[in-house]
Amino acid sequence: MAISFDKAFGIHQYTIGARSARAEVLAANIANADTPGYKARDLDFSAALEQAQSRTQSGFALATSDAHHIQGSSSSSLAGSVKYRVPNQPDTGDGNTVDVQQERTSFMENGLEYQASLEFLNSRISGLLKAIKGDQT
């Protein structure tokens, strides 16, 4: 009997990648807090999660402009889910829309949710290992 990872892990196997991509976007916002003209961005988590789920089921190919190009594929790009954030504060004159406090809070929340998904996956994997090996306590 084969083990279905979709049934065993549920949505949490997809949330890890989406949370990781969101952490990168939020970290870039924090790093560019003093960059004139930088616009704060965020990842639309529900769209990224949907994209991650559909990509692993159907996959996608890169566009080619010549018949001799090698067909490539990627499973880590969630760039279509990155959107500009609507600023909560008025422009300070330099065109930068990053609110450092908001970014830090979002980064912390994202980190906690990432950790929760890892803990859930860890408990599921431990349960599967016990089922495979037999509970030897």
Question: Low-confidence runs (pLDDT<50, min 5 residues)?
Answer: none
User: What general outline do the C-alpha atoms trace?
Assistant: flat
Alpha-beta content class: mainly alpha
The strand count comes to: 2
Radius of gyration, Cα only, in angstroms?
A: 20 Å
Descriptive notes:
With 137 residues, the chain is mainly α. It has one domain (12-60, 78-130). 53% of the residues lie in helices and 4% in strands. It is built from four helices and two strands; from the N terminus they run ααβαβα. It has a two-stranded antiparallel ribbon with strand order 1-2. α2 packs across α3. The longest helix is centred in the C-terminal third of the chain and has 34 residues, at 100-133. The radius of gyration is 20 Å and the shape is flat. The protein starts with a helix and ends with a helix. The mean pLDDT is 81.
Supply database-style keywords:
137 residues; mainly alpha; two-stranded antiparallel sheet; 53% helix
Would you kindly provide a brief summary of this structure?
The chain is mostly helical. It has helices at residues 5-9, 12-31, 45-58, 100-133, and strands at residues 41-43, 82-84.
